[in-house]
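Re: the 290-residue chain
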Amino acid sequence: MRLFQLFDPLRRGPVRPLKPAPTPAAGILTGFALAFVVAALSAAPVAAQNSIPAYAADAVYRTPEGTESTGRVVKSGPDMRLEFTESGRAVVQIIRRAEGRMYVLDPASRSYFTVQGEPDPQAGAAAYEAPCDPNVTAMTCRFLGNEVTSGITAELWEIGQPNDPAQVSRILWDGARHRALRQEYSDGTVMALVFQAMVQIEGRSVEHWVITVNVPGQGPLSGAWYYDPELRVELREELPTGEVRSLRNIVVGAVDPAAFSVPTGWSENTAPQPPGPGSGAGVPMPPSAN
C-alpha cells in the first residue's frame, strides 16, 4: 500500500499504476494537502540512508492565492499520524502501512472508523521500491532499461492502460527516492526533475530539485522540490500550479507508539462510502513515500 501517486503536473487526471492508499470519505482531507537558502558543499544528490529516523513536524499547505492550511505529521517506521482541522472540526488520521490499515478519528465524538487495504511488508524501510504493484492487473507496467540523470541511475518504465495507447506514459523512476524523475505523457507533455544543489532548509541539509513541465502548444511551467535524504521526505514542494506544501519545526527523535493507536474506550463507526465520480473531493497525499 503506497501513500503516494505519480506527480500529475496539470491535475488533469491520475496516473495510478501504484499501490493505492486507503481513500477516506469525501472531504476528510480536502483542506489539508500534504503526498513537502544557503548552498552546502556537496554538489550531487546524497545517497539514501539505511534507516529512517522518527520525526514530528508542522505541515503547511498554501494555495496559489496565498491561503494557508496547517496541521501536524508524526512519522515512525511504517506508521504515520496526521492531525488537521476540516470545516472547523479536528480530525486525526492514523496510517499503519505494514498492516494496510488506516484509522480516521473524530476527537469531538471520541469515535473512529477503519479502512483496510493491502499490507505493505516493506513499509518504513529505506530501500529500493519498484513503481508498480504486481497485484494491480488493470495496468500494464513494463521495464525498458536504465538511464542516468543528475548522477543517478534510474529505471525507465512504460505504464498505462492495456490496449489504449492514449493512456500509456513513460516514467524515469528513482527507486531509492520513490519518485518519478521524468514523466512522458502520450500527448507529448513532459515533466522532469533536475538536481541543482544541496541547500539548508529548517536547519537540515536537503536536495534542491527543479521541476519543469512542458505541454505542447503552451509555455513551460516550473517549480521546485526539496528532499531530505535522511528523513526520506519532501521538506518543501513548490508545484508548477502555484501550490506550496512544506514541513516546518521538525523535531527528530523517538515517538510514543501510542500516537499510532486508537485511544481505549473510543467507539468504532462504519466507514463512509468513498465519493463517486465527479464529486470533486480531493485526497491529498501524506508527505513521505516511505
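Residues 38-266 form a domain with the outer membrane lipoprotein receptor (LolB), chain A fold (CATH 2.50.20).
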